[in-house]
Amino acid sequence: MLLKIDKVLDAAGLARARELLAAAPWVDGRTTAGSQAALVKNNQQLQPGTEPHRELQALVLQALEKHPLFFSATLPKRVLPPLFNRYAGATNTYGDHVDQAVRYLPGGTQRVRTDISCTLFLSDPADYDGGELVIADTYGEQRVKFAAGDLVLYPGTSVHRVEPVTRGARLASFFWIESMVRSDEQRRLLYDMDMSLMRLRAEHGEAEALVQLTGTYHNLLRMWADT
Fold first, then answer.
1. What is the pLDDT of residue 204?
2. How far apart are the C-alpha atoms of 195 and 81, rounded to whole Å?
3. What is the C-alpha separation between 101 and 189, in angstroms, rounded?
4. Residues 28-52, mean pLDDT to the nearest whole number
5. What's the pTM value of the predicted model, to 2 decimals?
6. Region 210-214: what's the mean pLDDT?
7. Residue 116 neighbours by CB under 8 Å, 6+ apart
8. Which of 132, 141, 46 is nearest to 85 (CA)?
9. 93-97 and 160-162 as β-strands: parallel, antiparallel, unpaired?
10. What backbone torsions phi and psi does residue 95 show, to the nearest 5 degrees?
């Protein structure tokens, strides 16, 4: 499921993120790439462990927790702490690759399966040329370049790339989610059902049929979830 979630970060959150990123130390982005991805990765990443990095992680995670659609779309079991990248100048692209299937939480104590890949855009599209996130799915290549503060979710199994940035700088946060529901198809069914239930509830209140359908949603989640 490829899904856009609008306005994960509001104007105040974006302003603080940009303030922190403007003065932050950047390092070679290949430090977090797997062996295949490192061959085609040419960007910069915010240096982990710094105070700006920790504050930005907290900012993004708090925004995700408050967003009404995030839980429904991802059904998160574990969220890897967000990372931050920059594409500009000579370090401006990331070729076709697939994200690592398993990553480790900081400290290397716990493995996380990367069911869902996430990119949160932090730069206004008018501030840079190029830099589209290109995701291959069953309908062909999807070119993604969203407004600052918007998030795209897509299956971790997807081949994807970032096109060269030819003007300005593209800043973003990226991270991965291990979902309680491993199957992308099952997550899509549950998300569509949940959105329909919300619309019907707003129109008709807690009708008997809606209570029954809500029960069906939770029974499917109970059947498919690995908690």
1. 86
2. 27
3. 23
4. 84
5. 0.94
6. 94
7. 74, 153, 154, 155, 156, 176, 177, 179
8. 46
9. antiparallel
10. -70, 180
User: Domain 184-224, CATH 4.10.860 — does that match?
Assistant: yes
The CATH code for residues 3-179 is: 2.60.120.620
Write down the pLDDT at residue 139.
82
pLDDT digits (tens, 9 = 90+) for 97-156: 999 999 998 877 789 999 999 999 999 999 999 999 999 988 889 999 999 999 999 999
Nearest-angstrom CA–CA distance, 29 and 50 = 16
- What b/e sequence results for 12-21 when a residue is b if at least 16 CB atoms lie within 10 Å of its CB, and e otherwise? ebbeebeebb
pLDDT at 113: 97
Where, residue-wise, is CATH 4.10.860 in the chain? 184-224
In the chain, list all ranges with CATH 2.60.120.620: 3-179
